[in-house]
Amino acid sequence: MSGTFVGMPAFPEAAREAVGNATLRGNLRHATHTIRAKRAKAVSEVSDWAELREAGKRIKDHTLRHLDRYLEQLEEAVTAAGGIVHWAADAAEANEIVTQLVKMTGESEVVKVKSMATQEIGLNEALEAEGIRAYETDLAELIVQLGKDRPSHILVPAIHRNRGEIRDIFTQEMSEWGRPAPEGLTDTPAELAEAARLHLREKFLRAEVGISGANFMVAETGTLVVVESEGNGRMCLTLPETLISVVGIEKIVPTWRDLEVFLQTLPRSSTAERMNPYTSTWTGTTDGDGPSTFHLVLLDNGRTDTLADEVGRQALRCIRCSACLNVCPVYERAGGHAYGSVYPGPIGAILSPQLRGTGSEIDASLPYASSLCGACYEVCPVAIDIPEVLVHLRERVVEGGEVTREGNRVVLRPAKGHAAERAAMRAARWAFTHPGALRTGQRAASRTRRFHPRTLPGPGRAWSGTRDLPPVPAEPFRDWWQRTRGGKDGAK
Amino acid sequence: MNSRERILGRVRRALADVPADETPIARDYLREHGRRTVAETVELLAENLADYRAIVHRTDSAGLPGLIAGLLEKRGAASVLVPPGLDEGWLAATGVTRVADRAESTPAELDRVDSVVTACAVAIAETGTIVLDGSPDQGRRRITLVPDHHVCVVRVPDQVVSSVPQALERLDPVRPLTWISGPSATSDIELDRVEGVHGPRTLEVILVGEA
Ligand code: SF4
User: How distant is the Cα of A193 from the closest Cα of chain B, in angstroms?
Assistant: First the structure.
């Protein structure tokens, strides 16, 4: 997986910087707490949430366990409906395919719907290198793009920016990219949104090529689904002549009916709404309505390697709702950028090191970017046991072992200088192999605390003296924070 | 070996631990939430539409043309987009210039139109959603996207379902579908909700019942 935030320090260093930034922390805390409260209310409206969650988990697991069959079925259905299917083993190949497809249209600019997959592969940069300009059209993505910034949240990528900063970015940068910001632009959200509307509308109306991802692909019918709020998605999906969708191979559901589960759980989990303002579905091409050419690029880029890990593969169930970010005490403090990936927060901590391997310092440190408090698992609408995968990945980093990289089995050597983690790991594993210790209440954090002395003995002492974040739940994150930083940042 | 074979090969090797066949997925979630009479379901639709800032009107077939004419007038619309299969009678009471939904019209032409009037395929009460499926009385997807004012007519109670599962049952996946829950909105700036970024900023839904 490319698209690593180049030059990112490992998580502990990056996090230390983030927690020192009061504005960032304030913005994030406000946002995560607000969404969290709204989400709880949206979920409580449906009495069968537990059953929906279980069904979502099972549908996704079943799909992943027969992914070859569903990929072939999907390809057949999309082709029969008039679409053209391409397969990309990695980021470079996906970028190459998309670049060629755009070049074939003779166009030098494209409009884009917010998509994690295209960020993951660094598509905009690849297109730029070939002289093709990609315009992000989601408001938050526009803010990030104009600000030459990185997204910090899955759902609200510019959550780290407040209105004053956004006004300044619009005023200074919009003219570089097209229609300038209106004179005397203030920082009210309504005016800022209007400026974005005007700026982007001229692009939508002339665009010949649109690029998107998809939230779901239905194997049975070849239907793609995009959920969104602003209408920029609808613009990109319907106005251009050519549509190119880049989608991870894990985004399949087997049948049309399966959408009934996810169209209930995704909006409530992500934006805390009963339903997002717009959902678009399309099956190949339709005469006279929408693009006349549709390309689907199926992306592997580390997903088959993740699939090969029997514990870690559950991360591929993720529907990118971002609920786990909003409940994570570590994310709230550290910010989205500290994760060095387009997937921040708890899901990023388990997904990125699997997609990219644990070769780099940042990826090796990500499984430690958690307090193992279990809140992420509780909110996850497809019941991904993030703490379980975190502990599993920590073991892999510390003790090495067999993994799959680019389709080949390789033996990973234990990470150097992780003696302390090794010792700590054994204790954590004890907890995880004794399911009773995990099953209830606060799960790992409160449970394993009993088995960990406050200061680790032997090599552990060296660890606790030099690291900013605990590698195992020696204590819950909040307690640890209180102890080490307590009072300094107004933590509650 | 091409990438297709490479990826499928990797998937198959990755899944060596998985048995070939498994039990079907249990679907013990609800088909709809709560028991409601037909009238209550329509009422819930109206409430949830309004909660998402759609403007809801109610009338019967006799009152429909007058209501539509009034809404266009109030809006100050000079032109209205009309899908090819829209019931002629719906626009009988208005003199506003009609613009046909033509395949060759450019997005810029659509951008100059003030309002659009369509029917819908189905409406979902529990979520406050209307669904368009591109049928002749709803037109191409873009006509309900580019103009700033969308008037959508829902026949109650026959086009209303309670829930998302019931809606999917009625819809044809081969058609391009647009599910609309309230007007376009964003919460990207400090989570303050702003209506109308790129889609219509005003959505008016008319519930038409038998008198
Ligand atoms: S891991 Fe679960 S909670 Fe987190 S983004 Fe994915 S689906 Fe949502």
Answer: 6
Please name the amino acid found at residue A434: H
Number of A/B CB contacts below 8 angstroms equals 240
Q: What's the Cα-to-Cα distance from A461 to each of A424, B165, B173, rounded to whole Å? A: 11, 56, 60
- How do residues A248-286 score in pLDDT, each as one tens digit? 999 999 999 999 999 999 999 998 999 999 999 999 999
Smallest CA–CA distance, residue A11 to chain B, in Å, is 26
| Environment class of A83 (CB within 10 Å of its CB; exposed 0-12, middle 13-18, buried 19+) | buried
Alpha-carbon gap, residue A385 to A372, rounded angstroms: 10
Q: Which residue's CA is the nearest one to ligand 1's atom 7?
A: A318
Pairing status of strand B79-82 against strand B115-118 = parallel
pLDDT digits (tens, 9 = 90+) for B45-67: 999 999 999 999 999 999 999 99
Atom of ligand 1 nearest to the CA of A320: 5
Q: Which residues pair with A286 in a beta bridge?
A: A289
Higher-confidence residue: A143 or A364? A143
- What is the value of ipTM here, to two decimals? 0.96
Q: How confident is the model at residue A431 (pLDDT cuts 50, 70, 90)?
A: very low
The 10 Å Cβ neighbour count of residue A188 is: 14
Rounded CA separation A88/A345 (Å): 27
Mean pLDDT for chain A overall: 84
Q: How many helices (H) and strands (E) does chain B have?
A: 5, 12
* CB–CB contact A280 B176 (8 Å): yes
The whole-model pTM stands at 0.89
Q: Is A319 in the pocket of ligand 1 (CB under 6 A)?
A: yes
Q: pLDDT value at position A417?
A: 59
Tell me how far apart the alpha carbons of residues A382 and A258 are, in angstroms, rounded to a whole number: 13
Q: Where are the beta strands (DSSP E) in chain B?
A: 55-60, 79-82, 97-100, 115-118, 122-124, 129-132, 149-155, 160-161, 177-180, 185-186, 194-195, 202-209
How far apart are alpha carbons A352 and A374 in whole angstroms? Answer: 19
